[in-house]
Amino acid sequence: MGFSDRFFNKVEKRTNVNKETILELARELQENDLKNEKTLRHVIQKLGSMTGKNVSAEQEDKIVNAVINDKVPKDIDKMF
Prior knowledge:
4 helices
C-alpha cells in the first residue's frame, strides 16, 4: 500500500509528526501484533507522546476495544 506525499502532508499538518517518524512507526506496527492489548496500549501512548496529545485512560480503552474488535475504518485516507 503506497501513500502519496499529499497524505503525509495532511497527517503532518494535523499532528506535527513528519513522514520519517510515521514510516518508522509503521515499521514498528508491522512487526507487532495489533490484537495484543499490551502492544496496542504502548503504541497509543507513543502516538500521544509524539503528537503532544494527552490520551485519557477512557480514550485509550475505547481505542483498544475498537482495534481489537475490528471497528477501525479500513480507508485510512478518509480519517484525515
